[in-house]
Design goal:
4 copies of one chain form a homotetramer. In chain A, about 40% of the residues lie in helices and about 15% in strands. The first copy, chain A, is of the alpha/beta class and about 350 residues long. In chain A, the strands form 3 sheets. Chain A has a 7-stranded mixed beta sheet with strand order 2-8-7-6-5-3-4, with helices on both faces. In chain A, strands 9, 10, 12 and 13 form a 4-stranded antiparallel beta sheet that branches. A two-stranded parallel sheet of chain A has the order 1-11. In chain A, strand 12 and strand 13 form a beta hairpin. In chain A, helix 12 packs parallel to helix 14. The first copy, chain A, is globular. Chains in contact: A-B, A-C, A-D, B-C, B-D, C-D. Chains B and C meet through helix 10 of B and helix 10 of C.
């Protein structure tokens, strides 16, 4: 049964495995002090045209979010996130477990605006409530949408003005930056956000996220936080080698572009069949709304996530494509879908 | 410069990389629900002759320790450890960061005895102090010693009688179990300790520790704790595939035996040269005491850890061997050492 | 300027101060082991007809909530509360600071029903989300409403069936139990909830809340949690003496009844003037909806809380009465109000 | 049975109770925003000749320590304390419960020196260990000794040079400052330490400690931390009224001087009987070493703390005097002691 369940169903892109094999017997220091990690960090800085950022390699998204946010905030400060935000509903209270409340904001498209955040600030005037301090956004969002440059600039300016930390979860940043609707570049981000991460796990790596800390005051002692939360890998080279391979040339972007292309084929054909979508998603996750009976049939042949009920007879499902999605499987899926309609 | 700095200087044993390559494009569910992880867990249960334990695969030692200990203890309860214990001095307060004090116990050889623990219990009679609840031991210890069966049985019985949780850090369990002085078997552990982990990272894996929870009351909801602390990998298959390969046959033990053999050659030859050792270590870490001038010379040719000053003119260094240590490098080191003496 | 801002504007009822004076020079043990605290605990058990509950005296509501909830929950478990719940919006993330998420539930009247809680359970099926475990309710609620017996019985049965902990914040329990609409008795509570507290601070004491733990599994080692969070007062007698006086006869209930009576006069007269209320509140907090201009005038003569905007021209204010509210001041307020209308 | 167990066996000094009575029915705002608290804060600033410090009133020592230390430190930073320090052994892991390790330092007299702290810094060079950041000292110490000016100046300079926070637990600051051996003044402290508290509970108040934050960077948002940890009392006036009375004239110092005087009588007479002491203590706690049989006899007539075994036949006990200790009881005790010898 072919799976459109997520973008981490397979292992790693073959070039990444090759890189691990080739470097395997070189002796290196541990905990990210190996040459591969250090070169990867330098390469990433180069790719974003900024030598003044700090970059740390971590294992996964929840780990990165919880370490970054708990390192950045003082005990009484809170994060804010769209109600669809990953830290709110899919990380088992990881942020709260470090002592910080996450304030939920209802949105229509998974994206936060200055007025959304202003409303939270207005509702938290004094010490009887937490102090809202960090704005958590995802790009692409958990429902597939992306921030365009103008939106991100506005949010960034608002945060700077209000002394808020702007943090971007980039678990699917590759897909966002390679979307046909995107007008942001990797090199724009250090200017616009205070910290963000470049997701490797969902874009061809075995594991690995590269956290970029842009704001100076957030940089100090970050490796202490990583160690304390169990994120400094003895064989940190595992992370370094992968990011080195992903960014040595255009591999990272090529993989994301492939995932997007596969999603686009799905989206276009499904649209042509007059099937509506739950959200506007120009990235590698799409959310078609199908009759329940059709979903039941599809589940016999394909793995995917049931997303939510829409009305009595219809529900949205989530289809995710990745660097590993085969075009012939996409075509076969569409044919199957048409047959079932 | 050849390194005896640690047992994680290289990548993974080639068979492990092969296993990753062969399984790479199979689609699997995430977060440890893939077939490789599930088979690895079954295999491990088989190897220890116990189907009633729970086994979870995690990324590293600090992560495993902090998740296990914080999941096992209530907020007012404390861990106890030898002052040399890894959780005390080398994990950046990871246990305290989850809210729990770690009580330090001075020992001569890195090992805890019932009377050591009894003394802590005696010193903590009421609610004005933490409640000592979990006994943390390492096998092999951080200074290379191991628990024999009789010692572990005594400690185990003491803990059961006093309603204490006995937890074994097995970062180097392979080396302990393969020591020529060892009389414990993997299958003894579920009976003797309440939880322990089998270290993969320091015995040939890229990353990976297998936590075995033996006591029923500690099992419930453990995956919630893993997720909350950022330890559920999206591609959990990375851990499963490795443990499957390590325990498919005798690989895990063969690798540890090789590391021990290399350490034995070093130890025997260094002893013959009338060089004393800081500790009695029958495992893959040894601590010869050398003249400071000699150490300075050695450092020009080899990488290793300076351990501690012994007297004005002598210091102990740490030499660590691994599955990847080459016998010719051991021989060369010994020759160099003799030349320098 | 007379204040209807809250029920803790004055010090303590004179009988309480007298009790402190009379017992002042008796030497006693510290930390709640004095005779006054112990007698108070026995007396409270007698008043609720249950000798099998555990009772602890603490300083304030936030302190009691955070210690109880963090002692009762394991790290991955969450509390649930009405969105108006005190722990959600007015305790500066105190619960999250102990590591636990608080899930917010929208309600119409500040009260939770089984179906409210069921919906949260349905939305939290697995380890990628927190495990909802504790139902936090307030009686009276933060908006003045109360649970009747039937509502509480239903919620209690639901919680028992679903292995949930039911915890009642009783900061204003006196006012709730003395409401003319109430059909619950203090002695009903140990059967219906797993833990609750009897608020002293807002009912005539200087400080003090009596936490009653009814469920056996929640009792163990509770004093450790109190000490760890800074709640074991060296002069615990300060709390014991006050509760002894409050419950020696009917003082606690007399004081609450007076507060309610004063609120009733306000409510009845304001109603007669055809002024609507934001919520149905039969207790000592009422929320009349007044024209904004009128509120501005009233603020020149009285202190009270602005509660929330209702429409362009109207807003709700909060008027709180207490054991210390003077009837002549209530009368004067009503006269003033009428003049300003 | 007369008690020398501690300095909080009685209630409050009568003048304090009077102050509570006199102010009782004045309506005031809550949470420390009442006029009494605000005047107390102003008065305290005046008494130490510094208007630029921030002062907050809290309920007890453990509460003050845990809130201050957790507010001052970032998650990876640790406190250092003498092994006799209250936060190490008598606060049930309160500091660790906020996530911070407390590093223990062995001392002879309960006091820390620059070289003690330097040794800890030397042992914590990198991110694999916590970062030692806050030096916790007590004055008087838990074993009755005091810092003289020269010692405190040296420690202060060392901390400034090493970017360490110097925090003084002043649970018994009154007794320290009124010791005949003391050469420090209250007004010296804001220059020498970054924060300290003036203990009220053990010097005549019902409850109450006044935390003085001297270093600017530690001041921001402190009330948030107080609220989050349950320390903002609804009737904050309870604290304000007491400190106002204690510092309105010389009451605070008079009470401490009386306690010291009573201790001095005990110390002098016990010394004359050739009974040795465990520590040099010029304050209100003394630790005579007595034959075990004599202690058993004394326990029939007096309440006091057994402190520790000294040799097979002798042990140290702790005798504590307070503002409430009666000279005739001191005399009677000494007579009894002599009879029993």
């Amino acid at each position: 049964m072919y799976s459109f369940k997520n973008d981490y169903s397979e292992g790693a892109h073959p070039r990444i495995l090759n890189a691990l094999i080739e470097s395997n017997l070189v002796q290196e220091d541990g905990y990210g002090e190996d040459q591969f990690s250090q070169k990867a960090v330098e390469l990433l800085k180069e790719r974003m045209g900024r030598t003044d950022v700090d970059i740390h390699l971590l294992s996964g998204g929840t780990q990165t979010n919880l370490i970054a946010i708990s390192a950045f905030l003082r005990p009484h400060e809170a994060a804010m996130a769209a109600s669809t935000g990953h830290i709110l509903g899919h990380e088992t209270g990881a942020i709260e477990a470090t002592g910080h409340k996450v304030l939920s904001i209802e949105t229509v498209n998974g994206k936060l605006t200055p007025s959304d955040v202003q409303a939270v600030l207005d509702g938290h005037p004094d010490e009887h409530m937490v102090k809202p301090k960090l704005v958590y956004i995802s790009n692409s969002t958990e429902i597939g949408s992306i921030y365009n440059q103008s939106e991100l600039v506005q949010l960034s300016e608002f945060c700077k003005k209000n002394h808020l930390i702007l943090y971007m979860d980039g678990a699917r940043l590759g897909s966002a930056l390679c979307s046909t609707e995107n007008d942001l570049q990797l090199s724009d981000l250090p200017t616009l956000v205070d910290a963000f991460y470049i997701g490797g796990t969902k874009n061809g790596a075995l594991i690995g996220e590269a956290l970029v800390i842009c704001k100076d005051s957030l940089k100090e002692d970050f490796r202490y936080h990583m160690k304390q939360k169990g994120a400094l890998l003895a064989k940190g080279r595992l992370l370094g080698t992968q990011f080195l391979e992903l960014f040595r040339d255009n591999l990272f972007f090529d993989l994301a572009a492939h995932a997007n292309k596969m999603a686009t084929i799905l989206r276009d054909e499904i649209s042509k069949a007059n099937i509506p979508f739950l959200t506007h998603s120009p990235t590698n996750q799409i959310f078609p709304i199908l009759p329940n009976a059709l979903i039941t049939e599809l589940e016999k042949h394909y793995a995917f996530h049931f997303w939510e009920k829409v009305d009595t007879d219809h529900s949205a499902i989530r289809l995710v494509t990745s660097w590993a999605t085969k075009e012939e499987e996409v075509t076969a899926f569409l044919e199957n879908l048409k047959k079932l309609m």
